[in-house]
Design a protein that fits this description.
Oligomer: single chain
Order of helices and strands: EEEEEEEEEEE
Structural class: mainly beta
Shape: globular
Radius of gyration: 13 Å
Number of helices: 0
Distance between the termini: 40 Å
Number of strands: 11
Largest sheet: 7 strands, mixed
């Protein structure tokens, strides 16, 4: 079966960095649109970053533009989210998304930015 597993979350101080990974199994990510979302309690899931199937086209939410970078390594069947200059408001559960004939979601990884 298809599975997306996020990793790399944790506790970091404001201004710090984290690198999230999303490893896919049961499906090849090659050529598929993928994205990162985040969600905090009581709020809808927010699109943070997206990347085209070939990895050449990316887009970001205004709130993270210039600080976050999404990339992919199709050979490793993995997408990444490099998060720099983290702010308190970046605290959230981050989810990986894969677009296929149906939508696939990871379980999420917690990112907590705190001093």
């Amino acid at each position: 079966q298809v599975q997306l597993v996020e990793s790399g979350g944790g506790l970091v101080q404001p201004g710090g960095s984290l690198r999230l990974s999303c490893a896919a199994s049961g499906i090849s990510i090659t050529g598929r649109y993928m994205a990162w979302y985040r969600q905090t309690p009581g709020n809808p899931r927010e699109l943070v970053a997206r990347i085209s199937g070939g990895g050449t086209i990316t887009a970001y939410a205004d709130s993270v533009k210039g600080r976050f970078t999404v990339s992919r390594d199709n050979a490793k069947n993995t997408v990444y989210l490099q998060m720099n200059s983290l702010k308190l408001e970046d605290t959230s559960v981050y989810y990986c998304y894969l677009d296929s004939t149906v939508d696939y979601w990871g379980q999420g990884t917690q990112v907590t930015v705190s001093s």
